[in-house]
Amino acid sequence: MTRTKAAFIPPSTIEISVLVPVMNEAGNIRPLIEEISAALTGRRFEIIYVDDASTDDSPAELASCAADIPELRVLRHQTRAGQSAAIRSALLAARGELIGVLDGDGQNVPADLPALEAALLAETGKTGATGMAAGIRARRQDSAMRLLASRGARWIRRSLLADTHPDSGCGIKVLHRSLFLQLPFFNHMHRFMPSLVRRHGGVVIGVAVAHRPRLRGTSKYRILDRLVVGISDVIGVIWLLRRAPRQGEVTEVMAGKKTAQKAVRKVAKKTAKKASKKASNKASNKGVGA
């Protein structure tokens, strides 16, 4: 697909930034980017891919896409840092008020992004709160072994973290950028997003989404590795949740302009008082000398 370069979109007008971490996903990149663009047609958006030190043709494919698709931005890690670090790099570069995240393997369906966004805004728009709309895969297209491992991980999260979200491992989600930036960053944090969002007072809305089999390439995670690393991650998240400050809602009670004006008046009053005292002392001294 070849597209004409669009007019420059000022950063302040971008509505949603879609973040996609990839590592050795050649062949999956262009089809997914084109699907994201189609799903957000008519919107002011950007797509941020982070290449986590790929060794295949992913860099060349991303360069080719960037030449055709003006909304695409590409970041690259010089050394491999992992999926959570790639998402974090994209988040720090993102300019949209809303953040969409999906996996780079093509199993998430970009056409679900508008529904996730609508669900988030419908829920948080009533109160002005922040939150996350997280996908729930209705029919997962994974191997029986992977489904079994996910079921075990879900049981552990529910038992130890009180994570009631039915599909915390689903990669597609939409959330407020301001909230995302407040979440603690650590390796594999993307697996615990619902718990972390709730820890910071955000709401979590589950939305049914589609899921499809991987058509190209292979998964970068081995089931045993996920299990061993997952247990240590859960222990760390338990510590985080227990250390969470019990802070209620914070309300601004005075506008910055008024505060500044009050400070200026206070300084001016003090200065005038000093000047008056100084003048009075001078007058007294003159009287004594006469």
How is the topology of this model organized?
Blueprint (H helix, E strand, L loop, with lengths): L15 E7 L6 H11 L5 E8 L5 H11 L3 E6 L5 H11 L4 E4 L11 H12 L6 E7 L6 H18 L11 E4 H4 L12 H7 L3 E7 L13 H20 L13 H34 L1
Parallel strand pairs: 1-2, 1-4, 2-3, 5-7
Antiparallel strand pairs: 4-6, 5-6
Helix pairs in contact: 5-8
Molecular structure report:
The structure is a single chain. The chain has 290 residues and is an alpha/beta fold. It has one domain: Spore Coat Polysaccharide Biosynthesis Protein SpsA, Chain A. It contains 9 helices and 7 strands; from the N terminus they run E-H-E-H-E-H-E-H-E-H-E-H-H-E-H-H. The chain has a 7-stranded mixed beta sheet, sandwiched between helices. Helix 2 (58-68) links the parallel strand 2 (45-52) and strand 3. The termini are far apart. Mean pLDDT is 80; it is low at 1-8.
